[in-house]
Write a structure and sequence with these properties.
The chain is α/β, with parallel strands linked by helices and 488 residues long. 24% of the residues lie in helices and 28% in strands. The protein contains ten helices and 22 strands. It has a seven-stranded mixed beta sheet, covered by helices on one side. It has a seven-stranded mixed beta sheet with strand order 18-17-16-19-20-22-21, sandwiched between helices. The protein starts with 7 loop residues before the first strand and ends in a 5-residue tail after the last helix.
């Protein structure tokens, strides 16, 4: 049977795609249905049809899955942020484990994968320490803020996200009230006009410090003094800044930061390490799980105080400083100059003198330092962006020949690709541990340990040196040793 756009189909959802969508079949025709859960029987409308598969919109749940739960957020289906709120948490962990395992099998070609149990979350909501809220007007002309609907730039009004902290709503209420009182226009993406683009809020999970950064299509907010006074009434307010972004693009942050009040940073902790976090800093958004993630990376690194470690894509030194507690020396690389300055300050803040940080692309800095300056590594830790590692970087890692490589990944597909490259060139996949950093979403972090491949077996050979039949002359050995003498 041929299916077309707008056809209604009844499906039993038998599987789950990598983006959390339910998968069912109608007469052999595969349909991907957002918001459907494994075990559901649903009615879906075909919104896009290919030859053998299509995409459907969930119209009705005829028979709910035993894994289906009531979403905590009323905007869960509209908003693009939480793809799995309708799925029970134990099944979310099964989904994420299978996602990592599936990528390692299909893309990496691995079998008998040494998977450890996924590390789940204790607090399933209000765990995010950072949020970026776009500001605009709705159809009625009212100033709104919230999140973009999935695959659009239409703002779903929501000042109290179930994943964010309670302070977010208090900040947003005051920002919108200030805009309304003084006639300040939100930014309009279509025209490029208007002033207020986004509100960035960071929260110190352990210190309770609050940062507000207003992203503007201009240099200042009208009535700055009144604006600051209002925000300072919020307990824990520590930093209020302006970020200038006049570019006509959908990039959120510009490069210029201006301090309005307080400090240019807030401070928070992961384990025993304190970090200064600026508006531009990369910092993991789930501090409780990050502590577990880094503890697992540290366990895999197996440091005993004698190792030299390279931390690639080090950001503000979050993993570097964790490692420096156990290593002899740690070198970090990051492309963002401000992040490296933060990393150096964070090292001083924690009294760690066994660190060195480099500005630049990891795929350029590591080969340069290895080939020109002769630096080496006993252990390499790599935590790249979603696109994974550049092949030049992987080549240098192979050349440097560290005893262990610890790969921390936020995208299991590019992880699998990079692991395949490394394991075809002398390394062995020893351990894999998924960590759920982002409950209610399809995203999952993974920590992997690679080490040198061990020999398949050994052969005992008996050799007698000296003169006589069947013996090896010692002068011959000396000549051969000179021939194969390694380079300096």
């Amino acid at each position: 049977m041929e299916f077309r756009k707008n056809d209604l189909v009844t499906l039993e959802i038998e599987d789950c795609g990598i983006d959390g969508e339910g998968i069912g079949k109608a007469d052999g025709f595969t349909v991907f249905v957002k918001d459907a859960v494994i075990g559901d029987t649903v009615t879906a409308k075909i919104i896009k049809a290919k030859k053998n598969y299509g995409y459907g919109r969930l119209m009705e749940v005829l028979k709910p899955s035993p894994y289906r739960v009531e979403p905590k957020c009323e905007f869960a289906r509209q908003c693009g942020g939480c793809q799995l709120q309708a799925l029970s948490y134990d099944q979310q962990l099964v989904f994420k484990t299978n996602k990592v395992k599936g990528h390692l099998e299909r893309i990496g070609g691995f079998t008998d994968i040494p998977m450890e149990p996924i590390i789940g979350m204790d607090e399933l909501f209000h765990y995010r320490n950072k949020a970026q809220f776009p500001v605009g007007r709705n159809k009625e002309g009212k100033i709104v803020t919230g999140f973009y609907a999935g695959r659009t730039h239409n703002i779903i009004e929501n000042r109290d996200c179930a994943l964010g902290v309670a302070e977010n709503k208090e900040v947003l209420d005051r920002v919108i009230a200030h805009m309304e009182k003084y006639g300040i226009e939100p930014y309009n993406e279509a025209t490029g006009k208007g002033l207020v683009r986004h509100v960035l809020i960071r929260y110190g999970y352990f210190t309770k410090e609050v940062m507000v950064c207003l992203i503007l299509n201009g240099n200042k907010i009208p009535k700055e003094e009144q604006f600051v006074k209002s925000l300072c009434e919020i307990p824990g307010m520590t930093s209020i800044t302006i970020n200038v972004n006049k570019k006509h693009s959908n990039v959120i942050l510009g490069e210029e930061i201006r301090l309005l009040w307080g400090q240019e940073y807030i401070t928070d902790r992961i384990g025993d390490i304190s970090y200064q976090i600026s508006p531009l800093s990369f910092y993991q958004v789930n501090p409780m799980q990050t502590q577990k993630l880094y503890a697992k990376a540290l366990e895999y690194a197996d440091l005993h105080g004698q190792e030299t470690v390279w931390d690639l894509y080090c950001g503000i030194g979050t993993i570097s400083l964790f490692l420096a507690q156990k290593a002899k020396f740690v070198r970090g690389v990051e492309i963002v100059p401000a992040a490296i300055e933060n990393a150096k300050e964070n090292a001083k803040l924690n009294g760690l003198e066994n660190t060195e940080f480099f500005v630049g692309k990891a795929e350029e800095v590591l080969p340069r330092e290895y080939k020109k300056n002769g630096v080496y590594a006993d252990v390499i830790v790599v935590d790249p962006p979603r696109k994974g590692c550049d092949e030049t970087l992987l080549e240098t890692m192979i050349e440097m020949n560290p005893e262990r490589i610890v790969y921390v990944s936020c995208d299991s597909a590019t992880l699998a690709r990079d692991l395949k490259y490394l394991c075809e060139r002398g390394y062995e996949l020893r351990k894999v541990c998924p960590v759920d950093q982002f409950g209610m979403t399809v995203h999952v972090e993974t920590v992997v340990l690679l080490s040198h491949k061990k020999p398949d077996g050994h052969i005992n050979v008996k050799v007698e040196f000296g003169k006589g039949e069947g013996k090896v002359p010692l002068d011959n050995i000396a000549k051969r040793a000179e021939t194969y003498k390694p380079k300096e």
